[in-house]
Amino acid sequence: MTVYGTAVAPPKKSLRNLVVGIVAAAVVLLGSGTTFQLVRELPDATLSTSVASEIKVPGAAPKLPWPPTGSAELMVEGLGRLGGSGGDSAEPIGSVAKVMTAYVILKEHPLTGDDEGPSLTVTAADVEDYEGRKATNQSLVHVEEGEKLSERDALEALMLPSANNIAHLLAIWDAGSEEAFVAKMNAAAKALGMDDTEYSDPSGFLPTTVSTAPDQVELARAAIKFPVFAEIVELREATIPVAGKIYNYNDMLGVEGVFGIKTGSTDQAGGNLVFASRLKVGKRTLTVVGAVFNQPGANTPEQLAEVNVHVRKLLVAVRKTVKEYELLGAEPAGKVEAAWGDSATVSPAAPLKVVGWPGLAVPVKVTADAPGPSPAAGTVVGQVEASGVRVELRTDSAISTPSTWWKLSRVS
User: What is the dihedral of CA 88, 90, 91, 94, to 10 degrees?
Assistant: First the structure.
C-alpha cells in the first residue's frame, strides 16, 4: 500500500555502488593528471649575462706623436678613429684636392680590372692651358695637340706627378667646364659629409680650395674603395703617351706599409699628405688612413720632407699601439637558470681578445642558444662576439633535474 507524503530510502546496496563509482572515477581522473604532470615537456633554461653592449679596451688612451703645427688625423678601417690634432678650421690643401678629382671621374666613368677606359683627345686649348701654367711653376706633364690619353693614362698623370694641366683636361672632358666640374666636386664632398671643405679648382693650385684633415681622411677612405684608384696611387712609376715615363711624388710609398695616396704643397698650403698604410696584427691586415697637413718649409721638397717625418713617427707609434687586447676574461659572465630555480654560472670558453687600442669602445653582442631544461657542465648556451671574434659561452656546472613535487605542482 502506498502512503503519500512519506520518503522511501533507496536500498543500501545501490547507495554503496554509487559511492564506489564516484571514488573510482576520481582515482582515474587523479591518476591521469598526475601522469600528465610527470611527463610534461620541461621548459628550456634561460640565459642572462652581465656582458655590456659596449666595452672599452682597458688602459689609458694612447698618446701619439702628433705634429706640433698644422693638423693631422688617423683612422683605422673597421675599428674607428684613432685620434687627431690641430684646429678644425679649413686650410689650403694643394694637390691633395686631386683625390676628389679622381673620385668624381671614377664615379662617373668607372674602370674595372685592366680597363683603360675611354680616350681623351688633347686639344689646342689644352696645349694653351699647359703652356700658360709653366710661368707659375706648376706640376705638369707635357701634352701635344691631337694626343690620345686613355682615362687610366690621365688618372696616372693626375695622381703620380700631380699634373695640374691633366686635372683641367679631365674636368673639361667630364663636365664641359672647370666651373661645372668644381660644382660636382663640392656636391660629392657634401654627400660624403665633408662639411668643412670647399673646392675652387680641380687641381688644388688655388688657395681658395680648402679642407681639413678629418674631411680628407673621409674622402680617402671612399676613394680607395675603387680598386683602380688604389692600384694607381701605389704605382711608383708609369708610362703614358708623349710624356713617357712619369714618377710618383710620394716618397713614403713602401715606408711603414704606406701604399698611397696623395701629396700636396703650395706656399699657402705648406706640405700635405693623405695616406693609406697596411697594418698587420696577428692574422688580420688592417688599413690605416690618415693625413698630415700644412707643414712648414721654404719649398716643396722641404715641406714634404717635414710631412714625411711626422707620418713616419705616427705610423711607428700606431704599430706599437694597435694590437690584440683582452676584452673579456674566461670568468663567470652570467648564468643559466632552470624554471624550478636551480642555476649555474656561465663563462666564455676562452678570453675574448680583439684588435684595437686602450680606450677604444667596442660593440659587443651576446646571442643565446637553446640549452635544454637542465644543461650539463660545459654545455654551450650562447656566444659573445666583438670585432668579428666569437667565443662560446659555456656552463660552469650542471643544473639538477626538477623534483617530483615541482613537476606535480607546476602551473605553466
Answer: 120
DSSP 281: E
Give the whole-angstrom CA distance, residue 332 versus residue 348: 7
**Other residues' Cβ atoms within 10 Å of the Cβ of residue 279:** 19
H helical segments located in 260-338: 300-321
**Confidence at 28, pLDDT banded by 50, 70, 90:** very low
Q: What one-character-per-residue DSSP string does 87-112 give?
A: -SS-EE-GGGGHHHHHHHHHHHS---
Q: CB of 379 within 8 A of CB of 371?
A: yes
Q: What is the mean pLDDT of the chain?
A: 92
Between the CA atoms of 173, 177, 178 and 181, what dihedral angle is there, to the nearest 10 degrees? Answer: -70
Round to whole Å and give the CA distance between 101 and 272: 17
- CA geometry: angle at 363 spanning 357 and 366, to 5°? 130
> Taking residues 310-319, what's their average pLDDT?
98
What is the structure's pLDDT at 223?
Answer: 98
Q: What is the DSSP letter of 198?
A: B
Read off the pLDDT of each residue in 5-18 and give the average, rounded to a whole number. 51
Q: Is the pLDDT of residue 192 over 80?
A: yes
pLDDT score, position 8: 45
**Section 391-408 average pLDDT:** 91
Contact 308, 290 (CB under 8 A): no
CA distances 250 to 318, 345, 407, Å, are 20, 56, 76
261 compared with 22, residue with greater pLDDT: 261
* Residues ≥6 apart with Cβ < 8 Å to 7: none
Query: Is the predicted pLDDT of residue 16 greater than 90, yes or no?
Result: no
Kindly report the backbone phi and psi dihedral angles of residue 93, in degrees, each rounded to the nearest multiple of 5, phi listed first: -120, 0
Chain segment 103-112, per-residue pLDDT in tens: 999 999 999 9
Chain-centroid distance, C-alpha 387: 10
- Residue 275 CA to residue 289 CA, distance in Å, equals 6
* Dihedral (CA of 33, 36, 377, 385) sign: negative
| Element of type H or E holding 191 | helix 178-191
5 exposed, middle or buried (CB, 10 Å; 0-12, 13-18, 19+)?
Answer: exposed
* Residue 29, pLDDT above cutoff 60: no
Residue 147: Cβ within 10 Å count: 18
The pLDDT score that the predictor gives to residue 187 is 98
Distance CA 326, CA 36 (A): 50
